[in-house]
Every structure is written in C-alpha cells, then in structure tokens.
Amino acid sequence: MAQSDNCVFYKPDCVVCVYVDDFLVAAANTHEIEQVQRALQAKFRLNDLGTPRSFLGIQFDYHVDGSVSIHQHQYIQKVLSDFGEELPDEEAKARFATAIGSLMYLMVGTRPDIAFALGLLSRFTSQPQSHHQVALQRLLRYIKATQFHRTTYRSGQLIGYTDADFGGSVVTDGAYLHSHPRAIDKAESD
Fold first, then answer.
1. More confident residue, 160 or 75
2. For residue 68, what are the contacts with CB-CB under 8 A and spacing of at least 6?
3. Strands (DSSP E) along the chain, which ranges?
4. Residue 51: pLDDT above 60?
5. pLDDT at residue 85, rounded to an integer
6. Using a CB cutoff of 8 Å and minimum separation of 24, what contacts does 17-23 make?
7. Separation of first and last alpha carbons in the chain
8. pLDDT tens digit string along 116-154?
9. Percent of the chain scored above 90 by pLDDT?
10. Quick one: residue 146, left, alpha or beta (phi over 0 = left, psi -120 to 50 = alpha)?
11. Among 2, 103, 138, 178, which is most buried by a count of CB atoms within 10 Å?
C-alpha cells in the first residue's frame, strides 16, 4: 500500500487503485493485469470493463503512438453550468466555498494549471468579498476558454519541478507574480 494514499496498492510493475467499488489496474504487461484480476476475482465479483475510458470522472484518450491523454471535459461542463453565471451578490457569497471545492477536484484530477489561483482564492472561503467573487468568475472564464486542454503522457521518464511562490511569500508583497515554473519532461498540456 502506498504511504501517501490508502487506496493505492503496488508491487513491481503493477499499480492497483481502489475507490469504493471501482478498481483500476495498471501494469507493465497484460500478464500482470490478468494475475491481479484473478486474485481479485477469488475474493470479489468483478466486471472487467476493459481498457478504461473513464475513472472517477477523469476521461482517458489513447493515441496510436502509445501516449495517453487525460481530461475532465464533462466535469468542467457541469461546473460551468453550476457556477459559470454571475449570481446575485448574497447567493454568490453562499456558493463561493462550494465552487472552490468543485474546482479543487478539477485541479487535483487534471488541471494543475489552476492550482495557484485556486490556492489564493481558497484562503477566503469563509468570508469572500466582491473582489474574490470577481476573481472566481475570471478563473471560471479561464477554465471555459481552456476546457478542451488535456495532459498527455508519453513513455519515458517523467520529471517536473517548480517554486510557484518563492517558498511562501505573503500575498500582499507581490512576489508571487514572479514565479519560475520549469518544463515537465514527457508530459505536455495540449
């Protein structure tokens, strides 16, 4: 079991993700997948759905070159439907935290590009002011404009690093505007 996530189990060349009654098995070869599947079928009644097209709201697109893209276009449509319109001021304040939570799920799943803005906005969920609501609407407009973006993973080594805010500078000093993101090898946002 992974120390960082109690729902992820692994052994060499194989990873099993479990969420309630959904299982996702990834392995270096089909023999490993079949071995895990047989072991699970000995304990549970399973339906093999084949190559995953969707898992926990994340869609998978497979390409002929062996790469895979992930996205949450359907979830984005729902979020935009729920929160994309300008709301009366009091109703917007009441729904601010709900919108932030919905966007956090998107951020964790497939959209790390909204992490910094969402991190700033999430500091104000208990008492959002009108300018926070304006910033949330801007973030929603950005998501709408980029809703078809996806992350594509190719075979090879995955490397990534960044310092998004110079190690925790205060919001008011403006230093967070000067971040230094680095390229991520073998993963690209389309």
1. 75
2. 60, 61, 62, 152, 153
3. 8-11, 14-19, 22-27, 54-55, 58-62, 68-71, 151-153, 187-189
4. yes
5. 67
6. 17/55, 19/56, 22/55, 22/56
7. 32
8. 999 999 999 988 998 999 899 999 999 999 999 999 988
9. 38
10. alpha
11. 103
Ramachandran region, residue 86 (left: φ > 0; alpha: ψ -120 to 50; beta: rest):
beta
Q: Which amino acid appears at position 171 of this protein?
A: V
Residue 180 or residue 162, greater confidence? 162
Tokens of 51: 């190559």
For residue 19, with 0-12 CB atoms within 10 Å meaning exposed, 13-18 middle and 19 or more buried, which class applies?
Answer: exposed
pLDDT reading at 114 higher than 70: yes
How many angstroms separate the CA atoms of 146 and 139, rounded?
Answer: 11
The CA distance from 179 to 170, in Å, is 13
- How many angstroms from the chain centroid is the CA of residue 6? 18
